[in-house]
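User: Can you write out an input/output pair for a complex, sequences first and structure second?

Assistant: Here is one pair. Inputs:
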Amino acid sequence: MTSEKTLKQFNLRITKIRIAVLDALSASPAALSYSVLQDALSAFDRTTLYRTLLTLTDHGLIHKAYEENGESYYARCFGCTGQDHHHEHLHLKCSSCGGVECLEISEELKLNLAQLPFEEINISAKGPCSSCAIQGG
Amino acid sequence: MTSEKTLKQFNLRITKIRIAVLDALSASPAALSYSVLQDALSAFDRTTLYRTLLTLTDHGLIHKAYEENGESYYARCFGCTGQDHHHEHLHLKCSSCGGVECLEISEELKLNLAQLPFEEINISAKGPCSSCAIQGG
DNA sequence: CTGTTTATGCAACATTGTTGCATTTTTAGT
DNA sequence: ACTAAAAATGCAACAATGTTGCATAAACAG
Ligand SMILES: [Mn+2]
Ligand SMILES: [Mn+2]
Ligand SMILES: [Zn+2]
Ligand SMILES: [Zn+2]
């Protein structure tokens, strides 16, 4: 689905930066850091990017996949609606290339997590990502 | 064990700020945010606090329990050695009081996590903490 | 006590988070 | 297509944190 249609579906106004952010995150297999987004979207003011990321996160179109040392990584959400981000997956920070990816987890683990009495649960891990593991490291 | 002895045990030099940080984190049942530590240790330069937190983390005496929107929470480590932080527990950010606490997890969940091929795994959650849940909220 | 090693304090700068407000853009209604 | 209302953007401004270099002070081994 095109970014315009997605925005419309979520009752959000269609603006250039929102389309650009959604396009960028949709096109990337890995999560993108704030600084990378900033560079890619340098045509826009960084405050606008800041608020765009807030808006898209609040409405469940994207999510913050990882945060460390003040560096945040964002990824496209699939299946999230409104405030209800249900990330039944894991966020892996590659110890080799530094990339961040969203990974599916086992059904068993999902069940375990679902039993915990919390509103929101996130798992993050460090280790070789799929690409780096193949090439050895 | 006293903070001095702990430092000696880890082959770290005994300095005022290291003792102060260890004392503060050992005394608190919840993790302490950077800003709280900063305020409590305002006698020291913030660069020194920054480097102290790095050093104590690197040697496994403390760990970063939670990070969000550039705010980091630190907690005393028990059973961690050197770079090998093995946090078989969960970090809960209270949706009511905002406090962060380290919680034990079930053996079953530990086993599930242990099967994942990663060097380090962290779980964080949001929801009412033990104190706030009692009082209702 | 003394020399060596290491930590600290300070300056400096980069990055990010965050808010207010005037201006521009988007949208819905005509 | 035109217009008014609602919302988003750009810009300024400031706070907080991350990060490094370097001179000075403190810790430690002998
Ligand atoms: Mn994700
Ligand atoms: Mn912990
Ligand atoms: Zn990688
Ligand atoms: Zn609480």
